[in-house]
Amino acid sequence: MSDPLSQVFAALADPTRRDLVARLTEGDASVGQLAAPYEVSVQAISKHLKVLEQAGLVSRSSDGHRSPVHLEAEVFDLMTKWIERYRQRAEARYQRLDAVLAEMDDEATGQHPAREETA
What we know:
Largest sheet: 2 strands, antiparallel
Structural class: mainly alpha
Shape: elongated
Strand order of the largest sheet: 1-2
Oligomer: single chain
Order of helices and strands: HHHHEEH
Radius of gyration: 24 Å
Strand content: under 5%
Number of helices: 5
């Protein structure tokens, strides 16, 4: 998967990785600190972090386990822009549907919007 957006969504498809990202919004943490609440090994958390790192969601220095894991919040801008584009499209569709339903309701009740008369 070379598309950055696809990598981000694939990385966040796993609930453990989503939880790790959520915890990193509070601040940087070591791998050991991130692994503490889970009943899995530090190595398993490291693998999850590697997926997040490959997607650009987190970064670590080359020192690995001893260096803090940092959330790269800029990546969320990419996701937000993508989501917002489709949210706006869906909102426009709902607004058109609302207008059609209101017009149908007006016709059913015999109400017609005031129309300007032309001379």
